[in-house]
Write a structure and sequence with these properties.
The complex is a heterodimer. Chain A has a single domain, classed as Cytochrome c-like domain (Cytochrome Bc1 Complex, Chain D, domain 2, Orthogonal Bundle), CATH 1.10.760. By secondary structure, chain A is mainly α. Chain A is globular and about 50 Å long. Chain A is built from seven helices and no strands. Helices cover about 50% and strands about 0% of the residues of chain A. In chain A, helix 6 crosses helix 7. In chain B, a hairpin with a 2-residue loop joins strand 2 and strand 3. The chains are: A mainly alpha, B mainly beta.
Amino acid sequence: MRARALLGMVGACVLAIALAAGQNVSYQPDPDWKAPADAESRVNPLVKKPAAAAGGKKIFLRECVECHGEDGSGVLKKHAADLQRPVVQEQKDGVLFWKITNGNADRGMPSFSKLPEMQRWQLVLHIRMLRQH
Amino acid sequence: MEHMRFLYFRLLIFLLPLGLVTARAQEPPYFVTYTHYMEEPGNLEIETSSTMGIPRTGQKFYFAPYAELEYGVTTRWTAELYLEGQSTWGDSTIFTGWRLENRFRPLKREHWINPVLYLEYENLNEASRIQKELVGGAPDVSSPNSELRQTTAHEIETKLILSSTVHDWNVAENFIVEKNLSQSEGFEFGYSVGAYRPMASMASGTNCRFCRENFSAGVEVYGGLGSTNGFGMHETAHYVAPVIAWMISDNSTLRFSPGFGLTHESNPVLLRVGYAYEIRGFGSRVAQLFGGKR
């Protein structure tokens, strides 16, 4: 009973800190935002070039940080996805690439098709590095 | 005296962006052709550009600066306001009018061809020389400003923008129809087509300013196609223009394009320079000023 209360208090503190930091802990993925099957099967051509993630980080800081935050946790007031969460990280590289390319107009996520294809794959590499450990 | 006014005006236009706060921009290098890449929602882009016409014998050099405020209303709707002027060597410097444009992207996803619908209202006088688009016949570059500014035109302009991304290349085609509501000159037509690509496909890990990834280059071709009173290329101006853009910082982009006239009605050379500056989250900041949560 005492342990549960303690756990609840810790949870409330974590939530309060996250909210104060503007993180989007309440992020729920859009169930209608689904990549087609052929996108899922695409493999990141840079998967064996982890050094390319540095370029991905640079693009992320330039293009994505406004909504997703520097650590990818998602800015609450922007209703942006928390990219660290398993619900994002468990998606295949091809799906993340498709979502970056197409955006989600219904949720305010712009399309980044203006970035060259390899730069979008670099972004996917960087998103993988945001995974919670 | 006129010479000094001309210089001050030019200086003002070029210095205007330097006093603004920071932001980010990665712009297509086109000056005339539109793509399907919309302004990101809540961002405001401020751009100052100018069109300089190198004249034929007997004509005067002109310099036509314009300021452009582009705002991303939603992911699929971008609105822009233009304010434009013109200075002709040995003549005068005048304000030539304003334009309000809207672009709508009807499809949510990326496709092989991405259509965008464009609607613009123009309140301009006949001295306008920025040539953001060419429609109908060739513009009058011979009459004095005092005469041209007397005629004000209220115009509606529509464009069908078709744009594709093919292996890092952007290919875009714009079809233009314009109607002058002030005069019965029928509908005027024009076109522009362009292609460009970034100079490097991958981003380096360093913060370099002269890396190839910060440059994009291509070419655009644009011109008038007459009107319902006489459709075709007779007595119309056409240009072929290499275009180059340099992302000089995460905040801003510089663009340059020398356009070469293809017909006798065109200027032999049309030089264009533009400097774009983007303020991220502009909408949110304004909303916060008024107690909003956006």
